[in-house]
Amino acid sequence: MRPPIASLVVLLLVVAALTMIGLDGIHSAGVPQAVSDGEQRIAADTALSMRTAIDAEASTVRRAAKAYPATSTSTPATTLKALTSARKGILGSALLDPKTGKLLAVGGKTVQLAGVNVAKAASGHGAVRPRLVTSDGTRQLLYFARVTLPAQQEDANQDQNQVTGPDRQWLLVVSEALPSPTAYGDGRTAEVLDASGTALATASRGTTSPAAGGLPSAAARAAKRSGHDTDASGNLRGSATGNRHTVAGWAQVASTTGPGDTDDLGLVVLTFRTVPTTTTGVDYSGFAFRAAGALVVLALLFWLALHFLLQRPLLWLYLSAGRLARGATEGGPAAWEELSRPVPVNGFGELSRTGRALESLRRQLIGESGPQEFPVRRRPGYRAFAGVGALVMVCWAVPMIFVLNRADTATAVPAPVLAVQQTRTEIASNRVRQSLDQLYTDLNDTAASLPGGKRAAQKKVLQRALADHKQFRSLYLLDSSGGITLRVGGSPLRTIVHVPDGGGITTVNTSGRIPAIAAYTQVQAVKGKTPAAGVVLFGEIDVKALNSILSRPKLGSVWVTDANDKVLAANVGYRAFQSLPDSGLSRLARATQGAPGTAGTATSRVLRTSSGPSVDAAAPLAQSGPTTRLGWHVVTAEPAAALQIPAVQAEQRTMLAGILGLTLGLACLGWLYVVVIRPLRSVAVLVERLAAGDRRTVLHPVNHDEVGSVTRSLELVRQALAEHDRAARSGHFAEPSPSLRQTTLQR
Questions:
Q1: Beta strands 233-241 and 484-489: pairing type?
Q2: Helix (H) or strand (E) holding 732
Q3: Which of 202, 236, 621, 705 could form a disulfide with 248 if both were Cys (CB 3.0 to 4.6 A apart)?
Q4: Which residues of 87-135 form beta strands (DSSP E)?
Q5: Strand 103-108 vs strand 138-149: parallel, antiparallel, or unpaired?
Q6: Partners of residue 241 on adjacent β-strands
Q7: Do residues 437 and 641 lie in contact, with contact meaning Cβ atoms separated by under 8 Å?
Q8: Is pLDDT larger for residue 658 or for residue 747?
Q9: CA separation, residue 271 to residues 106, 145, 488 (Å)
Q10: DSSP letter string, 426-492
Q11: How far is CA 32 from the centre of its chain?
């Protein structure tokens, strides 16, 4: 009996303490933490976009060098021209002997190789990572690739058919400008910093923020302190002007999955903007005190009620039952002394019924009366008492869960937090566009190698492209009738049989379990040979590769939808071509559409869902490039509860306190009902039957507690009464002496 009562009181006091602690620490004045955290994640997303651009360029340079068909007649000058003439972004290039570092050929502007140990850089077996150098006062990136040459190239004066040694390599070095960051969101500035905090590139959008002050140096120092955490990020607070405060985020441009091309560059992305501060704060300490105080009062009332109405009466009943059992089983004056004292009737309901029945049994044991019938009365008992207790807990908890501190959808989420979600959705959209554009560009490069080749050579080109691009699940050529003439990789998912003009990105099915997104381009004709009219190269993109680039911390659920708002890719479970999970998200996606012929603009809003406010945003997939005319969107939805927003935190913690209080209170009352009240109801029925003359029903104790002890005592009383009844029927029962009866009556 004591454990459930003590547990109920203690747990309610614990919930009261948690309510006080959880709600008292929420304050909404100043800049919400969600804004600073959001700026940190924007910096991390921007750093990821820059890392992706550098990695893609490094892969392109290596892939071009690997695919170059070097022959024994190739010279450094012709090789360098063939590898760089079609590239527009190259500032300068050079071809070196990797063993000696000797320049073999140069092109464009001078490539700054001072400080670069060419022999050491090229000595490893893996790829040579890019280097950051200074040339003409500007910082540039050097990309490296190995060009393998036939062994005959070692000595041009020797017989061309004579093999003089193993294959040799040249080292290609390409100099390009550092990719410029993209500033997303009105009023935001993005900077790329080196390890010392010097700004290498800057971009801003809309009304620019004031000067960063000491933020670049602080960001560089924070990045240096992060040590081996290559994808470290953080947030900073800048200066305040009036009611506006500068918030900043920084992130390293380094690989998150092990050694990468950007790990040695020491680049850091810094983003910052000014946001309005909240001057009229909301303090939840008063509410916390009232809610916790009410629960403390309830805990004390529960203890008083259970102690005086259940615990003490049950203990008296336990002692009285034991006394009757001793009097019934023992002999002599001590036994009659035990039986001479009346049984006190305490409590109500089942305890009162049991006490009256015990008193009847006592009188039967001393011969004062015979069996007594007890009428069935429908009066409230301890089951109703437990129900009232549960109702009291419900009255405290239900308002906490469903009514109090409910966040207003229109005002709960600060405007800067909503702007952060929209900005991150734009970055996610740009990341998807980057990936698709790069695949389309690489598919064009593959198509340029196909004209004029034999079928075996074309298949080899496609196999090499498939091996270099894990994002493609299959590559195939279509003829003018739409039939596949050559394929490598998995079975195509296409169900739309057509031969499109031009090139770009499209879907090639409209149903099925897996959406089929493909890049396609025309295979050009070759002069002097049969035209390749109607031949199109398709590269079906593995949707898993697209899904993998959508997940970002605290961005929530992300979907890529087509022009009809049907899901093509997502970072959460989905069915192909299904609608978005909420009609509000579909309306949000349609709201991004601009005038006919335009890409549209990003938009965001707060939607109310069954689990609370949700910060949602949508952005067109692309405003330029091969995916512009598709009308696709990127839609995101992040529960506001996952963000550190004061109003939402207060709602969440209030609901949690209500759920905890209700769950623990009902659990303890249920425990009390199972181990005390329900057995007590059974005992009350049995003892009334025993007092009414039922001597055959054996009373079995179920639990080893107070009620079980009462049951064992009643079984001893039943056995004594049954023995007395048998003795009375056989005529051997002896009446108690007159002196003892007189003593009993006097008492």
A1: unpaired
A2: none
A3: 236
A4: 90-96, 103-108, 131-135
A5: unpaired
A6: 244
A7: no
A8: 658
A9: 38, 33, 44
A10: HHHHHHHHHHHHHHHHHHHHHHHT-TT--HHHHHHHHHHHHHH-TTEEEEEEE-TTS-EEEEEESPP
A11: 21
- Are 33 and 41 in contact, with CB atoms under 8 Å apart? no
| Distance between CA atoms of residues 140 and 194, nearest Å | 12
Residues with Cβ within 8 Å of residue 126, at least 6 apart in sequence: none
Average pLDDT over residues 342-370: 87
Phi-psi region at 629: left, alpha or beta (left = phi > 0; alpha = psi -120 to 50): alpha
Determine the distance from the C-alpha atom of residue 34 to the mean position of all C-alpha atoms in its chain, rounded to a whole number: 16
Predicted confidence at residue 29, as pLDDT, reads 64
DSSP one-letter string for 126-157: SPPPPEEEEETTEEEEEEEEEEEE-GGGG-TT
Burial label for 326, CB within 10 Å (0-12, 13-18, 19+), is middle
Cα–Cα distance, 107 to 258 (Å, whole number): 34
Structure tokens at 393: 């807990």
> In this predicted model, what pLDDT tens digit does every residue of 568-602 receive, in sequence order?
999 988 888 899 999 999 999 999 876 555 668 89
Give me the mean pLDDT over the 504-521 stretch.
89
| 260 contacts: CB under 8 Å, gap ≥ 6 | 51, 55, 254
259-285 residues labelled b (16+ CB within 10 A) or e (exposed): ebbbeebbbbbbbbbbbebbeeeeebe
For residue range 453-476, list pLDDT tens digits in order. 788 988 999 999 999 888 999 999
Q: Provide φ and ψ at 218, rounded to 5°.
A: -65, -40
Dihedral sign for Cα atoms in the order 466, 469, 474, 477: negative
| Residue 447 near residue 461, CB atoms below 8 Å | no
Token pair recorded at residue 358: 């015990």
pTM assigned to the model: 0.79
The 8-class DSSP code of residue 495 comes to -
**Is residue 96 classed as helix, strand or coil in its secondary structure?**
strand
E strands, 490-563, where? 504-507, 517-522, 536-541, 557-561
CB 15 within 8 A of CB 664: yes
**Residues 359, 344 contacting (CB under 8 angstroms):** no
Tell me how far apart the alpha carbons of residues 613 and 413 are, in angstroms, rounded to a whole number. Answer: 8
Phi, psi (rounded to 5 degrees) for 685: -65, -45
Residue 282 structure tokens: 């909301």
Express each pLDDT in 445-457 by its tens digit. 899 888 877 889 8
Looking at residue 573, its pLDDT comes to 85
N-terminal to C-terminal alpha carbon distance within the chain: 33
Q: How far apart are CA 219 and CA 251, in angstroms?
A: 8
CATH 3.30.450.20 correct for 410-644: yes
Coil, helix or strand for 708?
helix
* Crossing angle between the packed helical segments 349-365 and 678-691, to the nearest 10 degrees: 30
CA atoms of 412 and 651, how far apart (whole Å): 10
| Domain chopping of the chain, boundaries | 30-277, 287-402+667-746, 410-644
